Amino acid sequence: MALCLVSSADHSSSTPSRMRCQELRQFGQKLVRRRLLEPTNDSKSPTAPLNTLKLVAFGVASTLGAGVYILVGEVAMFIAGPAIIISFLVAAVSSVLSGLCYAEFGTQVSWTGSAYLYSYISMGELWAFITAWNLILSYVIGTGSVARAWSIAFDSLIGNHIFQALEGTFSPYMPYYLAKYPDFLALSLVLLLTGVLVLGVRESVLVGKISTGINLLVLSFIILSGFIKGDLHNWKLTEQDYTLNTSESGDIYSLGPLGSGGFVPFNYDGILHGAALCFYSFVGFDDIVTKGEEAPNPHRSIPISIMSTVFICFLAYFGVSATLTLMVPYYQIQPDSPFPQAFLHVGWGPARYVVAVGILCFLLYRLQSSLFPVPQVIQEMAEDGLLFRGLARTHARTKTPIMATVSSGILAGIMALLFEFSNLVDLMSIGHLLVYSLVAFFVLVLRYQPDWNFSKNEKIEDKIQMKPLVMENPLDSEPEAGSSNTLKSLWLPISTTPTQKSAQIVYGCAFLLVLLLTIPSLILAQWPSQVFSGDPVLTTVAVLLLLLTTGVMIIIWRQPQDPSPLPFRVPALPLLPLVSIFVNIYLMMQITSGTWAIFGIWNVVGKWLSGIKGLLE
């Protein structure tokens, strides 16, 4: 390195400089080292093979959760109005794009079972840490949000006595960026279930089936009720209707904002902001990938299952959101308990109790199931040396990762205690959107890597390979380096199969494309009206970015792909992964600045903990 070249006359100062350069190089190698997969003879067939239908059932059970019962009310009342069904459609499209990318990696390395291990195997330690750290955030926030949703639903059922008592006591002392009151019920629920997990209780398949059945019955009843008691006029509300409802209620503060009325009262911005929140409701379809090893035909069943899961969940969300906004004017929805209050509004008082009890039963199961993945990810990271190894310690009798379970439970409990449900939804959405974007990026880059293939029918054992993916010096690998040859290879690759040089070109272009896609996402999120009104400056910037993006994408398209057969390939590469990344980034830009601040703090803390661990070891 040029920085390492020193004068031979100053040998005394060159020694520490060489040492620093060597340490820096070792640190860089550590960041890009990745798992090496080797076949082993220790193979066994799955004890309970999962066909496509069972995978779809598992995916639907993992996806339908608190979003369908609590989130719908808040988004419809304050953000999107009846156009929430379009918000769910946009979120579903984003999920489909991400699901296709998940399907490719799930069929490539179906035995890994998580985006963390996949990124470690394919991209290296740095990417694995970023992916896993944000997965932990999403899982912990998911647990906290379900606990908060259960607490809200229970309190609404008993007349909001808990809310009234705690808000009156704690509200004056709570900072504006936290909840109005600490939710001790949600905290107690999370800690209780954490204790149950520590004792070695496992997830029950029978309980899961019963819970899913209850959920489907409740959803069917809600949707059918909407056809009976719904009123299309609630999608055409005007200022006169709002004034009439205000005079009837006698309290304007009990109503939500009117906006501009009609089907889209909060315009284009409301639909997209609602889509960013509604994305929370589709989180869970990626759990299907964790069952790839149990599927006898994963290359077919995983893609079909993911697409079917997203479609079925969209139909459910479409049905309940349409029902809610047809039964109740959107500005009269009770966000904390939308469906029980909707039945009360249409005169079906007894039905609200049946719906409320069904919702509580289902959310209790979802809370338990949402706690299971977190300790597993923490334990895997600790075993790989990315977190403190003490977190991987397991109980001798129950085989439960005690420290990982307790730490994740405490963190989830604190989140449920201090943050509003909407803030937790924002945090979970941004974490999963980032992870899904990373998976799309990995799929794009790895398709152009040389000698990138796995044996699909063999079990593997994990090792760490101190070898960078595309970080080698091209001068040391192939004699194709030269500035003229490099520029020529951008458009006319010299080989029909991937080389180290072509892989480096794709890697660099992919990073550039992420930057180019982030800029228009930010512009569209911050100044949408100016962009669509034809502002000359923004229009010029948009056209230039489009031209640059198209040119860089063509460069990637011209590079040779790995000819090795894959069980499933994302179609229209490199376009589809890039569209997925763009949509995900754009939805992330809809998240509030306060959520971004918390998200940034979380990742800084992760980097800080990683640094401390490195110093101690």
UniProtKB/TrEMBL annotation:
UniProt name for this protein: Cationic amino acid transporter C-terminal domain-containing protein
GO CC annotations on file: endomembrane system; plasma membrane
Spans through the membrane: 53-72, 78-103, 115-141, 184-201, 213-230, 270-289, 310-331, 351-367, 402-421, 427-446, 505-525, 537-556, 568-589
Domain Cationic amino acid transporter C-terminal: 568-606
Membrane topology: Multi-pass membrane protein
Family: Belongs to the amino acid-polyamine-organocation (APC) superfamily. Cationic amino acid transporter (CAT) (TC 2.A.3.3) family.
Family annotation (Pfam families): AA_permease_2, AA_permease_C
Keyword Coiled coil assigned: no
InterPro entries, per the entry: AA/rel_permease1, CAT_C
Keywords per UniProt: Amino-acid transport, Glycoprotein, Membrane, Transmembrane, Transmembrane helix, Transport
Highest taxon, organism lineage: Eukaryota
Listed GO MF terms: amino acid transmembrane transporter activity
UniProt subcellular location: Endomembrane system
